[in-house]
């Protein structure tokens, strides 16, 4: 477990971004954050806080959902990347794993993985090698390589989506809720993979997670988002120790973890001072 | 001050190919009159076009839009004609549908406001049968395929053909071509090949004609046994097959005569003035010439009315009188400079068609030439049919006003 | 401010489910009804009746029928034209076979025939979905138009092969046929269309409406929560075809006066589909907005050159028209893929929060 | 084979007899055996969890219960009777309601309408009455609206009542889905990963709802969930599946300590 | 009675085998021509789930451009080249103006947009080229125009050189497309795009490039189709209606399948001809070709809802 980012060099900067859906629904109300090179940055927050929207704003995928960035700027390596074609962003090394899997249902698992290598120009052999690497990470995928992705289980699809992103040899991965729907063992395993890729290959991560517990264990820095605003930021270690975070995101009060059966008669009351 | 004689033209849509030369001929004739004589009887004719694209819906819209001021409506499609026919009774505007429309319109007593001068489809069918009879002596035992557009227009001559088939003892084989199959008639021509008819008579329009002619060439059907109605005699359709089409015939009540004085005037007052949308090749064709003739008939009706009523600015009902009293004698045709372009005919209150008769034209590989003298239809064959169908129509649309003042035959 | 909803509290579910829970909407509707029932008949010209008012109503009704099927129940249909044809031919046969029959009754009854045929062609929808289903409706489209052409009994063996609306009267006033006046026909259409609109609004906001929308949005889930898909789809086909059939009968009897088979061919289906989509799928209001746009646009475009004093040949005007209509369709789809109705909803939302932007 | 004796949970609730029994269920897709000869039962009033690694066949099992898949072999007993082959909607009408792993809400409708669809099985006014908004249809609409409003209150989604569900964030959608299922007043409620994509606070809320439903309405619940904290805390009995086979069945404590389960799924003991 | 309907037609077939062969050959050729139009549809559908109604008008547009350029005095083959440039321009424009702003919209909206494109192209085409029927420059392009007259079973069988050429060209085109889709990276990307465009975007597949490419290929196919049809019946806007024929072909074969387009085209071409000749004309008043294909497709779909070769519709919860 790392406690500090490897470098202080800012790779991705999001400055005061505002996003509006459908011309009327204001979702992000000025979000700023920084992803450091070689670091794992966690983006935490409850349902509807705007995590997914933030990631999509960065990767320019808002367009087809009738959302648009109306204010602020997004810089990657010091360059403005707003308005770029998502494909252009992938060429620059930023790839997103979307929430809710989004596998190509009619392609086989293997074909899905291969599409990840679409922008790569380094030859078949390298791609084959990476394919093996992904299969090493996710042996279950190897078993199901010939099945159409649409017929695999939820968890298998999640693995497939992450594997597909890895296939593009990115510099930065935007991971949206990687742990959703995965068995606990696998959650652990996926974060181990994130860590391995981060340390071994120097890939930076921005990950949106609900599973705060794991996320803060693996991340270097974290941001907490509440209804479209960043309400807290800091190193993962600091956040972990913060009493509010402990209470609301880790589900721990002073006496340790509460049983889900006991919370029935007890409701946490939010009291962010933002 | 002008006479508003709008034309519900179709220069667009699937039938544009045939519409354009006709419309050009029509427009150019009036442009010529306006330039040369200052119109008809000293008053300019405004022959504005309203585009229908051959669609009935648009046609009706055009009718509604123009009917306020117009002295005539030229619907230019059987569909539109049928649609506006009852309305003209109420609005009292004459329909001029030269060579098309509903054949019983000949009965001026019932169809007071409709004119299919100078010839109707039953005239065409009658002349074609006569021609074939003359060629063979008798049609007894012959087989005639009737290739037609599967549309009210295509079915128009069927009642007469069926009647004649019984009388002359030939076998009639109707072969419909769907509107969507116009360009793809191999099934129909396979049927023709199987049935081996002695003649193929065609009631085609638009892209159907070109399709049929190419298909006939492909299946090696003898062209000289292939005869079309006047709407299936467009030069451009035959040019696709060129010399292979030689022998193909088309009955027609009009003929292009580049030497006719009227053509020289058009050249001088319209083409040279840059007012024409046409081109020399098109102007030499059958359809352009027919357009000219149609406008000339309308102008004749206007002139007749002006003479009768002694006013230049006639109204719609006066024009109706004019159209009922056209007398296109040989002399008048010469006078108008239409030499050889239209046969003589006369209309009357009871006879809204005129039954001008026409010529059999034949494609010689490069152009249409006349291969017959002036033929006349045997109207006695279908006088009764006309009366019956007209009465039937009036009954179905009761109350339908009729013009009891007309004397049949008068 | 104009559209302030604040302060309009509902104290019962009944009030909350009233037709127009927001007061301004009700006021607007009443204004529109007054215009339609009183003002238009006072000022409209014959041309306005024939090219705008009557067709807008009839097309809106046809689009509403289609919208029930496609917009609410999610079953794409490209056969509207043919179903309108069934309504028109049924009405023609009813009136010619039973000349004593009241034309209004005949018109309303003719929808039953198209409903029956609609259900028959709807049966494949139980297995076939999406664009593939379009084939079933296209089969209906082409087969029925062919039948109108071939089955001479349908047009009473007319030489012309077309049907001609006879003159019929009620209380001494001509309702159909060339002798009927436009005002009469306008009122008839208006009353029938308003009534049907009310039925449609009720159906779509009630239980059946929810069933349809569920079927449309996710049919598997719908079935898993207890919706009988077969019933839901077939009812949608029946009701939709009924409305479309009535629209078809009105189309011929109250407007066209005569019809040949290819009048009901695929361009008519597309026209109605355009109206439904540009207006907004899954919206009742949209049908009217779409009809006004799609019917009105060419009329306006046609009048435009003359109004501007330009002399453009009519063919060119027509070409430009087609191009402009095509471009505008694309334009509207881009501006608001959910149609004019959605655009109106957005404007309304903006008005509600006005003067604040969000 | 109806057994009526139940048992009493540690927190003192009386669990009734067998409500639903799966007997030797096998499910194949072409060559893939998704479920291999599994039997288990669900008792009246209990909260039954199904857990297992990804691809174990949990969702497929739920799909069999709700009639979406027909088992290749084996039978389903409901209320002691063998269930004949049925269409999913017929199963739903027998009182089985469910939520979905990949949210399956009706995106084009508002929250209220979505929840109202849950009441469909309870409404039967005729088309005419609906078209005229008169008589039975209108009364029915009001009555059911009241039931739905209760559910909405219960799940605390009043403020989004009129929002189209397409605009809601993931977590809230899950809650709306639960509302839709509850509105049907089912006798058995199937939940497929109801807490995926939620943070602790929201999971707590969700747990509360599930427990309350179970308590207040006595609804039997079968749920699939990957969060072991939740599963172990709220469920009465747990079935563990692994690649189509059943490897454990018992109370949370028994399962937690079952070596097979630890190896296949839990990794470390919780 | 029953004999007439069910036995006599077959007796007819065997009585005149040469005629039967001619019927089948004509069916085969029109089938191939339908399939050519369907191919354009399939390609676009595969890459974007857009049901491209404009394919029919693109055929007309391409043919008119070719003939129009030649009429201006441009040599035949250079006209072909220039026409391809025009089709490329069209593809770029459509992508820019129509598709890009409509990314991610429901299928039916995109379908409507292609009808919008159709209208626009009809208007533009008629303004530029006029509505007259034009003669395809068949000879100038060096396409053979004669025929072979064979005499099988002592009968007569006429095979047009033109038709034979069309069959060969279409076959080559199909093989090339199949190879492109199944064996290239781009082909996989096209299929991925059809499944989930958001995900495709997220892995760096450029919608813009692929769409332009695909629409351009559809344009090339349109040109080939236009030449083939134009050589048979002249070039005019009436050609547009044959696009409707491609719809049942697509449905029957499966919307995503190249093979399906071909098999569907041939099946429909031959069966509709057989039906029309042996049943339609004798018993049903003829002209059954207007609906036969649709009804056939419908029947097949009842058994295979995704068409013969279409992708299985994945239904999961
Ligand atoms: N297409 C859309 N149209 C309108 N509103 C939207 C749209 N997508 C998202 N929103 C709104 O934006 C807000 C933020 O959503 P977002 O998906 O970014 O949240 P999130 O933090 O990722 O939540 P979750 O943890 O549930 O995934 C939500 O309130 C949602 O209702
Ligand atoms: N319709 C189907 N066709 C083919 N294979 C299927 C189908 N449905 C499920 N499967 C396969 O059956 C297996 C079990 O799937 P299921 O969805 O039940 O898993 P699960 O236990 O719910 O997993 P997860 O926790 O990841 O959701 C998987 O391997 C899946 O690929
Ligand atoms: Mg999210
Ligand atoms: Mg699952």
TrEMBL record, chain A:
Q: Which SMART domains match?
A: AAA
Q: Which family does it belong to?
A: Belongs to the ABC transporter superfamily.
One Pfam family this sequence matches = ABC_tran
Protein name listed in UniProt: Amino acid/amide ABC transporter ATP-binding protein 2, HAAT family
Q: Which SUPFAM superfamilies match?
A: P-loop containing nucleoside triphosphate hydrolases
Q: Which PANTHER family match?
A: ABC TRANSPORTER SUBSTRATE-BINDING PROTEIN (PTHR43820:SF8), HIGH-AFFINITY BRANCHED-CHAIN AMINO ACID TRANSPORT ATP-BINDING PROTEIN LIVF (PTHR43820)
Q: Which InterPro entries does the entry link to?
A: AAA+_ATPase (IPR003593), ABC_transporter-like_ATP-bd (IPR003439), BCAA_Transport_ATP-bd_LivF (IPR052156), P-loop_NTPase (IPR027417)
Q: Name one GO molecular function term.
A: ATP hydrolysis activity
Alphabetical UniProt keywords? Amino-acid transport, ATP-binding, Nucleotide-binding, Transport
| Gene3D superfamilies (alphabetical) | P-loop containing nucleotide triphosphate hydrolases
Segments forming domain ABC transporter: 12-252
In the record, biological process GO terms are: L-amino acid transport
From TrEMBL, chain C:
Is Ubl conjugation one of the keywords UniProt gives this record?
no
UniProt keyword annotations, A-Z: Cell membrane, Membrane, Transmembrane, Transmembrane helix
Query: In the record, what terms sit under GO molecular function?
Result: branched-chain amino acid transmembrane transporter activity
Q: Tell me where in or outside the cell this protein is found.
A: Cell membrane
Q: A single GO CC term, please?
A: plasma membrane
Q: What kind of membrane protein is this, topologically?
A: Multi-pass membrane protein
The record lists the membrane-crossing segments as 26-43, 49-69, 76-98, 104-123, 130-148, 186-204, 234-254, 266-285, 292-316, 322-341
Name of this chain's protein = Amino acid/amide ABC transporter membrane protein 2, HAAT family
Give the organism's phylogenetic lineage. Answer: Bacteria, Pseudomonadati, Pseudomonadota, Alphaproteobacteria, Rhodobacterales
Automatic annotation (TrEMBL), chain D:
What the entry lists under Pfam families is as follows: ABC_tran, BCA_ABC_TP_C
Domain of life where this protein originates: Bacteria
Q: Output the Gene3D superfamilies linked to this UniProt entry.
A: P-loop containing nucleotide triphosphate hydrolases
Q: Which UniProt keywords apply?
A: ATP-binding, Nucleotide-binding, Transport
What is a single molecular function from GO for this protein?
Answer: ATP binding
Q: Record's GO cellular component, any one?
A: plasma membrane
Domain ABC transporter, chain residue ranges per copy: 20-268
Name the chain's protein: Amino acid/amide ABC transporter ATP-binding protein 1, HAAT family
TrEMBL record, chain E:
What keywords is this UniProt entry annotated with?
Amino-acid transport, Cell membrane, Membrane, Transmembrane, Transmembrane helix, Transport
Q: Topology versus the membrane, per the UniProt entry?
A: Multi-pass membrane protein
Which GO biological process categories is it annotated with? amino acid transport
One GO MF term on file is:
transmembrane transporter activity
- Tell me if Amino-acid biosynthesis is a UniProt keyword of this record: no
**What domain of life?**
Bacteria
> What residue range is the signal peptide?
none
- UniProt xrefs under InterPro entries: ABC_transp_permease, BCAA_transport_permease
Q: Name one Pfam family in it.
A: BPD_transp_2
UniProt subcellular location? Cell membrane
Which residue ranges run through the membrane? 20-43, 50-71, 77-99, 108-129, 158-181, 210-229, 249-271, 283-303
The name this protein carries in UniProt is Amino acid/amide ABC transporter membrane protein 1, HAAT family
Source organism of this protein record: Roseivivax lentus
